[in-house]
Amino acid sequence: MSHAADDSAQPPLFGPGSQFHELFDDPRWAFAMVRATVLEAAHPQIGAALIDNSTFVIHPWRRLRNTYLSLQRMFGADDQVRAKEAARLNRLHTRLKGRDASNRPYDAMDPGVRAWVVATLFESAVTMCRLSGRPLSPSAVERLYGEFRAYHAAFGDETGQLPLTLAEFWVYYDRMVEEELENTEAMRIILYKLFDHLPAPPLLNGLPTLWALGRAVVGPALGAITVAALPESFRRRAGLPELLGAGALMQGAYLTVDLARFLPEGWLRPQNIADLLALSPTSDDPRARTVTALHERMRRAGALLRLITPMSFRPAPEAPSPGQRSAEEFFRDVLDQTGDGYLTWPDLAAMARELCGRLDLDEPAETRLYDAFADWWRELQTALDTDGDGRVSAEEYAAAAPSLAGPALIRTAEVLFDAADKDGDQRIDEAEYRALFRTAFHRDTTGEATDGTTVYTRGAFVRDFLSFMSGRRLSTPYDPLLAES
Amino acid sequence: MVSRSADEGSGSLPEGFGKGPVPRHVACVMDGNGRWAARRSLPRTAGHLAAETTVIDVIETARSAGVEWLSLYAFSTENWRRPDDEVAFLMQLIRRAVRKHAPLLQARGIRCRFLGVTHPRIPPALAQDFADLTTLTGRNSGMTLTIAFDHGGRRDIVAAAQSLIRDGVPPEAVTEEIFAAHLPFPDTPDVDLVIRTSGEQRISNFMLWQVAYAEWVFPSVLWPDFRASHFLDCLHTYQQRRRRFGGLPPEQNGEPQP
Pfam families recorded for this chain (chain A) (predicted)? Predict the structure, then answer.
């Protein structure tokens, strides 16, 4: 990358002209990414890390967007951006270690684990082309492998983990599939729970009936497509079902999605789709307004449909009372980020991770924010974990919720303010606010209009954060950030 | 609508109608269903059944007469004390009526909403229908129809007081306008005319804040017998009255709420 691009014999490893760049905007990635994630989750160490730390069951859309952005940075032309992203991912992964249910240790920084993640991405890219009937040429596969090796090298791991040549890679890959992969809980959750319970993307939040209807059809199909695309030997070993027609469905799906290449250029950009799925209806993005208007019409159509259908229609779940939410709702929507029904450190770490990502924090600000969240966790644990099992259940939380705003939470608010206040002028201006919440100032954001500009003072910021985090107020800018998918 | 009425005959508007302004906000206390049934030796429920026709007739007449706001007192917080059978029947009847007439109300451009509706005894399915009708018609710009269901005027006033305190409004800042802004549906203007059928002359805890300056008429006809012609008679009576709002200038219609 550092050399001049005039040498056509040496195509660049990253950015425009690379093999990966050609594939990057391909809609088939949707399937390939899911498949790669399943293969990752089948690795015992990664599976354990996902079970403990990942928020993808509860917040899949946020996670999808973050993954997409990360890949874009890692495979972009800019070496500095790549180095920064690699450092960020390294810091993030350093924090992911522990022991699984059967007390085996896991560590997201383990070189073997990291090599396997790269391997699944590479192999899924190759397979996605094969399955849709347009396999990459052998030389293109070679080039792609070189690029993924460079991607792996960008993390600074020793190079021995990923085999040097493509031929050796396939041996390594087959051995991993044959010997290392297991039918892990994380894999089962992705295959059978995530698709069946996939939460609606934030934009479609108000349409539970419609979403449930579509999901009932698409969810099982997605699961079947993913299973059918997994290596045969692994399907056999993990005891995954061979559904009649699943193979044909899978190939049909890959083929159909591949047809999207005949759409006029720019019609289907994964970037736009990923953005749209993670977009909150309260955002000031013009697309959000369009969708909100559409949403409103669909809501009315849904109301009419319910009114004119025979009376037996089941009532939709009750809308939350405006302005406030119950302790249970707050626990489920905000605090329990990993969706396991308990509040533990990984839940708060996931919040810190999301905030660090949004604010694009570097060391040492990132560590300060994590430390503040860790202190808050200890405070919560001390105050709420009444049965002493090391975690806080929804009942324990609900019993003590009103007395939640302790000194560590206040400190967390202050650290977050410092991190968000990039220029250190003790107020959050328009740009800093947008970085954190991805939307413009809301009218109700107690802005003190000195010299006509709207600003957000430290006091107001801390107050709003506390009232959100102690579960007292709904519809704050933090909702799209931490509560919605 | 007018031509349908039996006792008025030839479809002419009552004499003098149209000479004064039509009241902007009319409210009806729908009284006399039970007595109507008793006079015919029918169960009370038959009276409620017969009331549905009147409701539709009144909505249609009010709309074509140019009334902008119509409020109907369907069920009070006190009505829960009635026998369980009757309450259950009423819930079922209202649910049927809402579903049956929803497309018509939407086609007529009527905006519907429900005042009250907080009691846990309200069946969830009914509450869902109320919410659906509100959603469906929420953007209509024709007449606004407010159905007071499980409504109590005092409770609304208490709710406003609670809301004021919750918002931390200092006592000296509380004016009538600010207080009114904390009532449920603060955009509702003052009621100009209340019609209470069956000759009863009570307020019965109905929209207490909003009826402060209302004119009242008490036609002796029972609600199931009340028809378009009676409604127009009431509007006519209203137009004959000189409204004073406690002062001297004979204005018509209440001031719009800010």
Answer: EF-hand_5, MPAB_Lcp_cat
